[in-house]
Design a protein that fits this description.
The complex is a heterodimer of chains A (about 500) and B (about 100).
Chain A (H helix, E strand, L loop, with lengths): L8 H9 L5 H14 L6 E4 L1 H16 L10 E5 L26 H8 L3 E6 L38 H8 L5 E6 L5 H7 L2 E4 L19 E6 L2 H11 L29 E5 L9 H16 L3 E5 L7 H16 L17 H12 L2 H13 L5 H22 L5 E5 L15 H5 L6 H6 L3 E8 L5 E8 L4 H15 L10
Parallel strand pairs in A: 2-3, 7-8, 7-9
Antiparallel strand pairs in A: 1-3, 4-6, 5-6, 5-10, 9-11, 10-11
Chain B lengths: L4 H10 L6 H18 L34 H5 L5 E2 L2 E2 L7
Antiparallel strand pairs in B: 1-2
Helix pairs in contact in B: 1-2
The chains are: A alpha/beta (about 500), B mainly alpha (about 100).
């Protein structure tokens, strides 16, 4: 075991059980890959000692016949998840050297099942960004490049470190979070599978809060089956999160490979937006054809309020963020910039600790929640949000799932879109509706554009119907036969 | 509802963020760009629509009001910038 290349999480589980290699060998191979991949800037903290200790404990459990579902599987953890005793920054300077004294429920579930932590993954600051460029640790670089070019591309955001680490095969899977597209868009930009489950499926306890009514954790993985295995472990009811749903977690992997014959798939006509590259149009049509070949019926549906989703999101998410981020006051943890008065300490700490995009969103949030504007902005947005959710409800009366592109473009150059916030926000045009309605969504790599960059298709399902999405994603994966990998340049 | 520099200053103060005076005009322009784009929402007829309060069909659970975790000052203070005995040390607020 010296190469991580081409090894899926499922194959690793099988290899560990068959004792083809040990958990320690598997961890070492990935730690070496991480060390060689530092130019990608995917990790903000490598935890090799912890990885080796966890891997050795896994080997001991495997020897005793006590292996858990993810025993010995090395994973990367987005730096939004609190990890006990291990620095957690949310990609921000304001958390400083914060070392949580507790473990997030999602990561605790993974460790319970035997997974091994390789380190903490880079991300946009407080998950606010679509290109990883708002990270206090500098942007992650996409392992993919345009053919014949050396230009550094974004892996997307906010879970850019997670997507890059999986695409460059530095880990067998990664945790990620998604408030508006932060799992699915980076998955599409890097040729990986990304799953945002139904709101409430995964506990938010111990996940640094951005927009609480939109945030959901989920996996990024190399294959649909791998993502299903990870989600089965991550999900589950948690009394410590009052929005966690008290429902059974099915074995999601059992849905992969199931027949999708007879399912009705909706294609929302409002997702045909101006200026979308023809290659993405063509890939979407191809996706419909693949699902028809697999026995699905494809019909057009209408989600009339689609174009209002992003403006509604950019009221609701900043409003929730400005409230959530009020806790960073320099008193109890993280950065403190000393000053003459209490107010000076607050202001200087927050001005120095937060980056520009975070400050921008806090200001918008504080404005739309302020006296006199609350009704016009915040309540209006929550009414529009209800309309958007109702659109989906109506559509799901006649179809079982929806198929759309994941993002309106392939990965773009680092620095190309930083000057115009609204242009950056438009990246999430196809994904943000799903968060506003609390639905499960998944991105599956489906093809390459003419420059050789990966493109993804998105499946959207009914609440708690991830199972059907995994079956459909499996069918798409099989038909697309997406085997392309980034050429190694790092 | 255009924002001017004075409004930015007021909102920044509410959010306890220090923005230097020379940044206020540029920030106002940026925020106006975003708010102008958000204005589209006024095109949506929301007559009779209740604002969404929960995205999933679930009632908030109730539990008994009992202490579930014991007090552990060392853990609570572990990340504090300044402490003394079992207290957070904060700047003086009363003379």
């Amino acid at each position: 075991m010296t190469e991580t290349k081409g090894l899926t999480l499922k194959a690793a589980i099988d290899g560990l059980r068959a004792k083809t290699f040990s958990a320690e060998e598997l961890a070492v191979a990935h730690l070496n890959a991480i060390e060689q991949a530092r130019p990608l800037n995917a990790f903000v903290l490598e935890t090799p000692e912890q990885a080796l200790a966890m891997a050795r404990a896994s080997d001991a459990r495997i020897a005793r016949g006590e292996a858990g579902a993810l025993e010995g599987v090395p994973l990367g953890i987005k730096d939004l998840f609190c990890t006990e005793g291990v620095r957690t920054t949310a990609g921000s300077k304001i958390l400083g050297n914060f070392k949580p004294t507790y473990e997030s429920t999602v990561t605790a579930n993974l460790w319970r099942d035997g997974a091994v932590m390789l380190g903490k993954l880079n991300m946009d600051e407080f998950a606010m960004g679509s290109s990883n460029e708002t990270s206090a640790f500098g942007p992650v670089v996409n392992p993919w490049r345009n053919q014949g070019s050396n230009q550094a591309l974004t892996p997307g955001g906010s879970s850019g470190g997670s997507a890059t680490a999986v695409a460059a095969e530095l880990c067998l899977g990664a945790t990620a979070t998604d408030a508006g597209g932060s799992i699915r868009q980076p998955a599409a930009f890097t040729g990986t599978v990304g799953v945002k489950p139904t709101y409430g499926r995964c506990s938010r306890w111990g996940v640094v809060a951005f927009a609480s009514s939109l945030d959901q954790a989920g996996p990024i993985a190399k294959t649909v089956e791998d993502a299903a295995i990870l989600l089965t472990s991550m999900a589950g009811h948690d009394a410590k999160d009052s929005t966690s749903l008290n429902v059974e977690t099915p074995d999601f992997a059992s849905f992969v490979g199931k027949s999708v014959k007879g399912l009705r798939i909706g294609v929302p006509k409002e997702y045909r937006v101006d200026g979308m590259p023809s290659e993405i149009e063509a890939l979407w049509a191809q996706g419909c054809a693949w699902l028809k070949d697999a026995g699905c019926e494809v019909v057009e549906v209408s989600l009339p309020h689609t174009r209002f989703a992003l403006p509604a999101y950019y009221i609701i998410a900043p409003a929730e963020a400005s409230s959530n981020l009020a806790r960073y006051d320099g008193m109890r943890y993280g950065l403190r910039v000393d000053g003459k008065t209490l107010d000076d300490v607050y202001k200087d700490t927050r001005s120095e600790g937060f980056g520009d995009e975070v400050k921008r969103r806090i200001l918008i949030g504080a404005y739309v929640l302020s006296a006199g504007y609350y009704d016009a902005y915040y309540l209006k947005a929550q009414r529009v949000r209800q309309r958007i959710a109702d659109d989906f409800k109506t559509a799901f009366e006649s179809v079982d799932a929806l198929l759309t592109p994941t993002a309106p473009s392939a990965a773009f150059g680092l620095g190309d879109r930083t000057s115009d916030p609204v242009a950056m926000y438009l990246n999430d045009i196809f994904t943000v509706t799903v968060n506003l309605a609390g639905l499960p969504g998944m991105s599956v790599p489906a093809g390459l554009d003419e420059k050789g960059l990966p493109l993804g298709l998105q499946l959207i399902g009914r609440p708690l119907d991830e199972g059907t999405l995994f079956s459909l994603a499996g069918a798409l994966e099989q038909a697309a036969d997406f085997t392309a990998r980034p050429e190694r340049w790092w | 509802m255009a924002i001017d520099a004075a409004t930015v200053k007021k909102v920044a103060n509410l959010a306890r963020i220090r923005e230097p005076d020379e940044r206020l005009e540029a920030l106002a322009a940026e925020l106006n760009g975003i708010l102008a784009w958000i204005e589209q929402l006024n095109e949506v007829d929301t007559e009779g629509v209740e604002p969404m309060t929960s995205v999933v069909d679930a009632k908030l659970p109730l539990r008994d009001d009992i202490v579930s975790e014991p007090g552990d000052p060392a853990r609570i203070l572990a990340n504090a910038p300044k402490t003394e005995r079992n207290f957070f040390i904060v700047p003086k607020v009363v003379e």
